[in-house]
Amino acid sequence: MHCKLIGIPLQDGASQLGCEMGPSALRVAGLAAALADLGHEVSDLGNLSPPPTRDVAHGNSAVRNLPEIVAWTELLADVAYRESGEGMPIFLGGDHALSAGTVAGVARRAADKGRPLFVLWLDAHTDLHTLTSTESGNLHGVPVAYFTGQPGFDGTFPPLVAPVDAANVCMIGIRSVDPAERATLSKADITIHDMRSIDEHGVAALLRSFLERVTDANGLLHVSLDVDFLDPAVAPAVGTTVPGGATFREAHLVMEMLHDSGLVSSLDLVELNPFLDERGRTATLLVDLTASLMGRKVLDRPTRSF
Ligand code: ARG
Ligand code: MN
Ligand code: MN
Ligand code: MN
């Protein structure tokens, strides 16, 4: 596989500074070498430059850095569309606001190919606020509402060429949902597995049923991995830690199953805040998880697709 690393030094969607350094930390932790060791061709396309902004405003005065996030979303939708034509783009964040653009771009590509896009959202949060409902004003809390075409983004964010069908979104790891997000969830058709669901059923069963749906639909699969999906004990380098997250082993199992499925066509690695890390352990874990997703394994196993 041709892996394309695309650095996105974005931190304007988060309240804490530091995600801007995420792409560098992932490089220092050896992402390119880990992928090359697995036999992949790797191109590091470098970091995107912050795009120029124009005046955009919204009635909700809590909203922070709207012109910056709108400009990044426009840029990223173009870049993600372009780079998903061939090979596998890996978007190195940067805060989770970047997924508004990356998912919009890969969804447009999937539509060109006549295939449905599915999104696996690995996160403590649903990131399902609209510009109206966000109380924190941090726009890393809105990308899912945007790319699934929820109302309220017109006149600010770029129009979506191909909205993602909410029924094609599966969230795993959820343990922090705001009241307004809960209301949207009850209307939208998103599949959502909270930590209780993982505890009751095991993450493998939850993921397997989603992957079967993607396979049956001949879909493309975008994976969006927020560092706070992981338990803060193993992944401290994130500004929005929530206790009780996915373990090291659960996260690797998810990645290994994704590899075996052969379905993943693009990946976001987001919310890494190197300023909050401990001797690079979170960046290193993200590199190891990406390696599992791209084929690193302990033993060969008898064939079973996933
Ligand atoms: N729901 C909270 C908010 O809107 C937290 C969002 C956290 N999102 C993230 N991508 N870390 O502020
Ligand atoms: Mn998130
Ligand atoms: Mn999160
Ligand atoms: Mn494998």
Automatic annotation (TrEMBL):
Co-factor: note: Binds 2 manganese ions per subunit.
Reactions performed catalytically: L-arginine + H2O = urea + L-ornithine
InterPro entries: Arginase, Ureohydrolase, Ureohydrolase_dom_sf, Ureohydrolase_Mn_BS
Annotated keywords: Arginine metabolism, Hydrolase, Manganese, Metal-binding
Lineage top rank: taxon: Bacteria
Metabolic or biological pathway, per its Swiss-Prot or TrEMBL entry: Nitrogen metabolism; urea cycle; L-ornithine and urea from L-arginine: step 1/1
Protein name per its UniProtKB record: Arginase
EC annotation from Swiss-Prot or TrEMBL: 3.5.3.1
Family indicated by similarity: Belongs to the arginase family.
Cofactors, names only: Mn(2+)
One GO biological process term: arginine metabolic process
Binding residue positions for Mn(2+): 96, 123, 125, 127, 226, 228
One of the record's GO molecular function terms: manganese ion binding
GO cellular component term, pick one: cytoplasm
